[in-house]
Amino acid sequence: MDEEKNINRTTVSIYGQQYTIKGESPSEHVKVVSEYVDSKMREIKKKNPYLDTTKLAVLTALNTADEYITLREKLKEDESNKRDGER
Amino acid sequence: MDEEKNINRTTVSIYGQQYTIKGESPSEHVKVVSEYVDSKMREIKKKNPYLDTTKLAVLTALNTADEYITLREKLKEDESNKRDGER
């Protein structure tokens, strides 16, 4: 931890490669996020054994962005339905 | 579109590379997701100009997974607060 700015450094392993992540998030959270990405990469690799690592990582990012955007859209919809119900 | 199983094929460009995404999601959604990943890669590259493309893609996946997991946790918390409020 950096004493000046409360910055945590967390070293994680993703697909066999070490990354040191700096930021304000607690190490525990960084580890959960990293394990999510690592396991998603391995899952996609299993289905597409001939992918190189760059494409694999891009597909992992796409897959995760899909889940994020889908959840975000669902939330917006729920909120707008709630507002309609309150009228 | 595949006539048998309602599978859409959408070709997108991410960080200068073409990807054909197959799946049941509408092309419009695949494009939104792809633009999100493409712009996030460019944003991270600006801050870290010496990253190779694989690491850049992994960091993009991490960044997106962080947003997804943070939103998912917030949702869980909201739901548990709502349940507590109903007691």
From TrEMBL, chains A, B:
Q: Does the keyword Cytoplasm apply?
A: yes
Q: Which GO terms describe its biological process?
A: division septum assembly; FtsZ-dependent cytokinesis; septin ring assembly
User: Cellular component per GO?
Assistant: cell division site; cell septum; cytosol
User: Which InterPro entries does the annotation name?
Assistant: Bac_CellDiv_Activator, Cell_div_ZapA-like, Cell_div_ZapA-like_sf
UniProt KW keywords: Cell cycle, Cell division, Cytoplasm, Septation
Q: Name one Pfam family in it.
A: ZapA
Q: Which Gene3D superfamilies match?
A: 6.10.250.790
| Superkingdom per UniProt | Bacteria
Q: Which residues cross the membrane?
A: none
Record's subcellular location: Cytoplasm
Major location (coarse): cytoplasm
Outline what the protein does.
Activator of cell division through the inhibition of FtsZ GTPase activity, therefore promoting FtsZ assembly into bundles of protofilaments necessary for the formation of the division Z ring. It is recruited early at mid-cell but it is not essential for cell division.
Which proteins does it associate with, and in what oligomeric form? Homodimer. Interacts with FtsZ.
Under what name is this protein listed? Cell division protein ZapA
Species assigned in the record: Alteribacillus iranensis
